[in-house]
Structures are given as structure tokens and as C-alpha cells.
Amino acid sequence: MIFDPDAPDRSHRGDWTKSLAVGADGVKDLMPLVRRFAYQGQFVITDKGLLSMVLQKQAGDILFNHYNKGGDLVVVGIEVKTDVTDYYNFFLEVWSNRSRETVGWMHTMKCDYLWYYFKNRGTMYSIDLPRLQKWAFEEGNIRKYELKAAIVPKQLNDPWGHCVPITVIKEEVGFKTFLRRHTGEWELEPQKLPVAPQKKHWEEELPPRGHQPSLFKV
Fold first, then answer.
1. Least confident segment among 14-28, 58-72, 152-166
2. pTM across the whole model
3. In the list 30, 124, 173, 189, which could disulfide-bond 177, CB 3.0-4.6 Å?
């Protein structure tokens, strides 16, 4: 999706096909990272097929097996959001179609992680989605931020959400930051921004190729 929360109107939305292409390009860019996390490098993209509507609504864009902290091989679901703006906010969608009272992915997603990818900056933030949802709804924090319409290419839906600064999510929820290099490979960025004290360190370098890194060390 293309989000431009500060744009004055929607007259310049462009073509919906372009938005689909942006999302597909974002997933493609993330493939080297997916292969490194996925057990035996195998994964499933959920955007096509008879099950795609169900999977895309709850399971996310990418599924793969991964060893958890307890050593069990589990299924991991990743929801990918590709943003081509230069803003420093996360757009957290609460209404997929506000005019029809259809809730957005922040309510419907049951997957493990949100990978929010700022394509122009080559930066991806990996956020524990259940933790983000708890912060937003159970703790009521999302209401602190203005509800805005998403400026996206023309479509039938009417998406709305909250624009939350990256620094806020860093301090109150936590995430891992991955940087895309000119080779197309990804690496974990060391912690830079000031954050609240954490019981566990998340800034752990990816292990050498051939060793499976962990998504669960946050």
C-alpha cells in the first residue's frame, strides 16, 4: 500500500494496480530474509488461490516453519506492509472500509509478526503483532493518535487508521530493524534510538549463512 497521511486530499491517488505492484515488490525484496528465517528455506506466499482470501485476512502474506525458543518447529505468519512514503510513522489500519464498518488488519490479523517495510529507505521493522495489538487495544494507546484516512490509489474500500511515530512503537512495543544492502541482502541494525529499559536484548546479529536465525529473540 501507499500511505501519505499528510496529503491534503485524495485527488491524486493514481491507479490501484500500482498499489498492488508496490506490495508485490515489497514482498519480493524481503525474500532473502524470508529464506534465512524459514526452515530449509521453504515458505508460502498467500496472495493467490482459493484459500488466499482467508489466509490474507488472518494468517498474513507469508507462512513458513521456524524453530521457536523451546526448540519446537512452529508455523510463523508474517504480514507485510510496504510503504513508499518518506514519513516516519507507522500507519496502523483499524478500518478496511470505514463507510461499511469493515474493520482493518489491526483487528483481523492473527499472525505472528508485522514486517513494515519502508521501501525508499531500504528499512524494515519487524514487530511482534500480538504485542502491538495488545498495546493498541487492550492498553488503549492507539486512541492517543489521530484517526486518519489512508491516501492510497483509487479503490472501493475506505481505509482509515492511526499514524503512530516509529519512535513511540520502538519505546513502548519494541521491534527489530533490518537494513537492505545494495546486494539485496538484509542485516540487523544495532540499536540506535533511546528506548525504555528492556529485560532482554533484541539487537542480535544474524548468524552466519547456513545457520537459522531466530525470530523469537526480542
1. 14-28
2. 0.81
3. 189
